[in-house]
Amino acid sequence: MTINELDKYLKTYTVDELFYKEYYLAKQDPAKLKEFIDKADMKLIKEKSLIVPDIDDVDIMEPYLLIEEYVFEHKKDYHILASKHFRYTPEFTHKHSFFEMIYVYSGKCEQNIMGDNILLKEGDICIVPPDVEHSISVFDDSVVINVIIRSTTFNDTFLEVLSEENILSSFFTKILYTKNYNNYIIFRTNNSDSIRSFMSHIIMESIENEQYSNKILDNFLMILFAHLLRDKKHTVELPKELQKSNKQLTSILTYIQGNYKSVTLEDLSKEFHFSVPYLSKLIKANTGHTFKEMIQTIKLNKAIELLASSDLKIRDISDLIGYEDDNHFIRTFKKVYGVSPNQYRKNIMK
Length: 350
Hints:
Elements: H1 3-11, H2 15-26, H3 30-39, H4 42-47, E1 64-66, H5 68-71, E2 80-84, E3 94-96, E4 99-106, E5 108-113, E6 116-121, E7 125-128, E8 134-137, E9 143-149, H6 154-157, H7 159-162, H8 167-177, E10 185-188, H9 193-208, H10 213-230, E11 235-237, H11 240-243, H12 247-258, H13 265-272, H14 276-287, H15 291-309, H16 314-320, H17 326-337, H18 341-349
Parallel strand pairs: 1-3
Antiparallel strand pairs: 2-9, 4-7, 4-9, 5-6, 5-8, 7-10, 10-11
Helix pairs in contact: 2-3, 8-12, 9-10, 15-18, 16-17
């Protein structure tokens, strides 16, 4: 698929979009709405799970919850999926168990995120974390892309973003490790050509679904993040709560993420000039987990990634993630996941 073919593909109306557009126009006149409902193809609506609040047989509960396992059901080895947001879809409040990145490919769209009304223009990128209620409105020919990013593998796949302190690492680290975090982050890219190019390749890889597309998508997203951070012409918008957040806590969490293999509370106390008891309480109060639990979670997440993507021996994986004793690693893994690392790998291969 070429860039021109992608452009034509995205701007062409799908069956779902044609249905939603007809529904949207019908709602402007009560008589036309009644006529639309009377002749509505219920088989099509149910087959495609179309959202039609005016038809009694279709019940949408808000906030509608989208589950990561369901979205990735047919692409279990993918961390990222990209698709077009169907134009004229009725606005409805929803939340999800994954990260969502909204990119305005052409035109504009409106978002309501936890009560904040936001206008996104062509080239803008908005990232919404899990469990945040929001809605999106696209009621014209604009093209908006939804990029879904697994939260369960985020920590490992995009480790480089989290390993140094920047606006994105602060955003993601707070979401992954604290109880208080911001509801969104927006990059106003001024319709950057480089960002558009990377986004186009992300969309194409997701559509074409060829061999190694999953790995290519991971790397394209990393490059996209790097460009967003490097280009000073891009402006960043954050909710007020992140702007007022505890910068020291972000620095501490980022340091833990970058040094998880060997870092101790004593190391942290020397690095940030706090006492060990104070640091221990600070981490527990803001994350809901002890320092030891955080380190164990990071290590085991990395172990899962290596078990799934490599043929490394268990002792080598144990060493790579910072366990001095591979028996200790095996016991810890089995206690948390109910199976040994070897059995976990066999289950994945099946």
